[in-house]
# Entry
Amino acid sequence: MKVLVAMSGGVDSSVAAALLLEQGHQVVGVTMRLWGGESDTGCCSVSDVDDARRVAQQLGIDHLVFNFTDDFHRHVVDPYVADHARGITPNPCIECNRHLKFDRLLERADVLGFDAVATGHHARIENIDGVWRLLRGADDAKDQSYVIHMLDQDALSRTLLPVGTLTKVEVRAHATRLGLRTATKPDSQDVCFITSTKSPDGATGRSSFLRRRIELHAADVVDDAGEHIGRVDAVELVTLGQRRGVAGGGGNKRFVVDVDVPQRRVVVGPESLLLVDRELGSSPTWTHGPVDGRVWVQCSAHGEPRAGSIRTNGVDGNQVDVVWDEPQRRVSPGQSLVFYDRDGGWVVGGATTASLTTSAIR
Amino acid sequence: MSKSLVYLDHAATTPMRPDAVEAMLPFLTQTYANPSGSHRFAREARRAIDEARDVVAGVIGCLPGEVVFNGGGTEGDNTAIRGAIERRAGVVVCSAAEHHAVLHCVEHEKGHVVGVDSAGVIDLADLERVLRTVSNVSNVSVVSVMAVNNETGAITDMRAVSRLVRSLAPGALLHTDAVQAACWLDLRTIWPLVDAMALSAHKFGGPKGVGVLAVRAGSDVAPLILGGGQERDRRSGTHNVAGIVALARALESTDRERAAECARVEALRETLVARLMSVGGVHRTIPADRAVPGVAHVCIADVESEALLYLLDEGGVCASAASACASGAMEPSHVLAAMGVDRGLAQGALRLSLGHTTTESDVDEAATVVTSAIERIRSATKGR
# Structure
């Protein structure tokens, strides 16, 4: 097959390209330039492009750079900023995978005559009884099926994940065996367009990034009885369920149980106030059509799956009701809920938590 | 280069002329001395540089003492702008379509950027307005206007620019980035209009990493690079003897053949553009009589340059779109943006640039590959 491999300059995608080549595919590497902003820490910094290009040269394959900065701004950065302004904590990596790594890149690959796109994600795609299934990666600790849950049958049929059957240790061993310069490169961690270093005044990268783009508002912190117990600098940066950084003491026993941006108010309280029986997901995507029934639900990139049932409703099935088997902590609005088949273990779909107020769920 | 490759990226780099290669080789193998030395061997190298300087001065129409050899076009532009303002107070002015070697210098110095008209050259009315406005409150120190645009091939009316600058900002140094002009325009017609002119050897059949900044006698331009005082203290650093010799030979040959080459290449370019435009939705960026013969620049509707260039590459055609950033990614063209070309259309920019090695069959092959790539992209993206 003729395969276009997305090479970020990290070890996983380097090895993905190498493995495809060993399997006899015709391979071309591409690095997507997504962000031209101030952070040079991320997946599209020039030094990472250098790494990707050098690995491609070592492997003897062509390497291209596509400039998708416009799309990245439109689909990832702008919504990231807008969501924060509304007090929602989005997951930009998921939106990037949805709109850039797969949508945009698959389209480009198609135009250029490639049969498939490959990435270095730790997940597996298998055809089981005529259906393309997205399964967890072989390395439990590195599994990334959560962040690519939005792939549908068309995308799954044209996507290859060569390192999904390997553990991270095995990936690095491959890279070392091949003498790739990315063999010992650390994993990328944070949001790629936000620097992980604090500014001289102690502000986090996220705070500085957002402060240059939207107005951040100080807010009162009250307890669940309405008693004023302190202030926060930016209500937009407070996340539901958060424990650290909100005034009032109480140590780890107090959680943020409500964030009200318009009223500039943060409510903290005991964990019991976070516990709910249900969760509401919006804009669901399905790997093989809508599914109702008992599933495992994962609510963060490496979170423990929770047992529950899902049922689609709303106009055109644009909402998913999640009913937990046991009461669960609320999921912060903007995060993805990813549904796994109870028996097969594959991803059946996912949705974004939509609800803004506690009362809507209780 | 393999036989099947069609090279239409001469504006990025044109292949070295065989006579220039031949001229430089002895200075890599035999006459390797440092020309600043005081022995006979050094004097031989020194003589080669002096002869090269005479040749270059002859082609530009300047005095030999006005020729400063340096490391290329970017250095020439940087020296002219930053070196001039070091010696005179005031505001720097350039056009919005300048090469980044000029534009980034002017932005760095917080200068004024003048608009561009739809033909891709500096808007003279806007230049006049800026010169008047700046002169009212301050001084214009440097005006930098390219003779030929590197992306579109658009030719600037340097006579009109010079007239405005001389009358409205008589104290300013007028610099021209003539890097893309050397192949196609008689430099003797430009030099009397300006105070400084930058050239780069690899654009006219010389090697990379060597260039010329001509600086009019009496114009005070501070050196960018300090050291041993070579080039009469205007550009320190050991002379690139072989490069300078090759530059001079290439420039001399280019100048001698220019009239004939312009006619030959223009005919090829017109054939190429006509073939491309027959596809439909292909817009010529600059009219034939306003662009140098070597550049065919078009904007193609419903096509993304990145995808197009990949298919061209696959089809053995080397071309380009706009300038690339440090990562190698294509940047949206600042030139087309300044011209007011719609951003969507500008994303389908294609520059095919011709030169001294371009043949009729190159053009024929390129037209076939480009037109089929356009059709393929359009049919693949239809209905999306």
